[in-house]
Amino acid sequence: MTLRAFAIFGLVGVTAGLTGCTQPTPPPRVVATLPPVKPPPPVMPLGGYAELDTADQRADGTYVTPNFEMTNAAAVWHLRGALNVAALGCDQAGGGIVDGYNAWLRGHRDGLDTYVKTYLHEWEQTGWGDWRDAYENQQTRLYNFYSQSPIRIAFCAAAREEIVKVGAVADADLPAFARGALVRLDKPFVDFYAGVDAWRDYYAPKVPAPRFVRTIPEEPVEAPTMANAATVVTPETAPAQPAPIAPVSAAPK
User: Fold this and answer.
1) How confident is the model at residue 28 (pLDDT cuts 50, 70, 90)?
2) Which residues of 138-165 are buried (b: 16+ CB within 10 A; e: fewer)?
3) Region 72-77: what's the mean pLDDT?
4) Is a pLDDT exceeding 50 seen at residue 180?
5) Mean pLDDT of 145-174
6) 72-89 and 109-124 are packed helices; what angle lies between their axes, rounded to 10 degrees?
7) What is the rounded distance in angstroms from the CA atom of residue 235 to the CA atom of residue 140?
8) Helix and strand tally (H, E) in the chain?
9) 100-128 CB burial, b ≥16 within 10 A, e <16
10) Which one, of 78, 71, 170, lies nearest residue 118 by Cα?
């Protein structure tokens, strides 16, 4: 056997020997895991503060605004009130509303006059002796709502968009347009309230009321006897209770 053949034979033998050996399993790769990123704490909206009275919330979490359960005439007149506040108060927050607002009033004078007369008649139909005072109070509440200074810039931006569109809306279509426009005009206020409440709930979570624990035992109830059995009140013999009086809503139905 030549030296060359011996070298080749030896190399093959070494390769076969290595192939027959079991290779060690490499250890699993170490993958670095980071803890979940905790969201940053909520930021108090500009102009908000911890003691601010935000609007009440309904059971579904939405906020109560003056625009709730409105008739068609009320929706149109509330839109007119909101845009009137914008025309009076937005000069320092971008302007661009007064001319469009005045053009809308001039171009739709008859339609708006019809809606406000209908709205006043709805208040009068309540039969309240002070219905006009109630109407004026509602208008004051509406104007105060839209005049909140912390939300003025955002409100004026929303009003600027609505004033561009409202002039082209036919009088007959104003109620449907007004309902949608009021939702959009209310959004800056709703977002502001939600931001304040989120900040307050994060830093000062609501503490549930303590459980009521009775400390004085109830007096024992005397079992009915034959002498007083006739006077025992049961669900079947209890006198009918008068129906509870529902609170009167400030808005006309």
Assistant:
1) confident
2) beeebbebbeeebbbebbbebbbebbee
3) 97
4) yes
5) 96
6) 120
7) 48
8) 7, 0
9) bbeebeeebeeebeebeeebbebbeebee
10) 71
- Evaluate whether 174 touches 118 at the Cβ level (below 8 Å): no
pLDDT tens-digit series, residues 128-138? 999 999 999 99
Residue type, 67: N
Rg (CA), the chain: 37
**Cα–Cα distance, 109 to 111 (Å, whole number):** 6
User: Which DSSP symbol is given to 231?
Assistant: G
CA 134 and chain centroid, separation: 26
What mean pLDDT do residues 6-25 have?
53
Query: Can you tell me the distance from the alpha carbon of 151 to that of 89, in angstroms, rounded to the nearest whole number?
Result: 12
Asked if residue 181 has pLDDT above 70, the reply is yes
Q: Give the chain's length.
A: 253
